C-alpha cells in the first residue's frame, strides 16, 4: 500500500497540468510542486522503513531480501530527497518522472526478493 503514495504523487507532479484541466484535486494541483516533492520524500521514507521491518533476521524474509530492501530503499530515499533539495536548475517534472520510473522496478525486485527468500 505505501508504495502507491510516492508513485502516484510523482505522476501528479509531471501531469499536474492535465489534472488541473480535469478539475482533479491532487497534491501538486492543490498545494503545489514543493509540497508534492516533500510528500514524495516523506512517503518514500515510510515505504522503505516498512519494507525493512519485513527483514526481521534470518528465517523471516531472508538475507537476500534484507540486502535488496536496504540497497533499493537507500536509492529510493536518495532519489526522493533530491526533490526536497531543489535548487536553481532543478526540474521537478523530470525528477518526478525518474521517481515514477524507479518505483516500478523497486516494487518488482523487492517482491521477487521476498518470494525467492535466499
Overview of the structural elements:
The protein contains six helices and no strands. Helices cover 77% and strands 0% of the residues. The model has no long low-confidence stretch (mean pLDDT 90). The protein is mainly alpha-helical and 118 residues long.
Map the helices and strands.
Blueprint: H1 4-14, H2 16-22, H3 27-30, H4 33-53, H5 63-85, H6 92-116
Query: Total number of β-strand segments?
Result: 0
Instruction: Estimate the strand proportion.
Output: under 5%
Overall 3D shape: elongated
Count of individual helical segments: 6
What's this entry about, in short?
The relative contact order is 0.18. This protein has helices spanning 4-14, 16-22, 27-30, 33-53, 63-85, 92-116.
Identify the notable features of this structure and list them briefly.
118 residues, mainly alpha
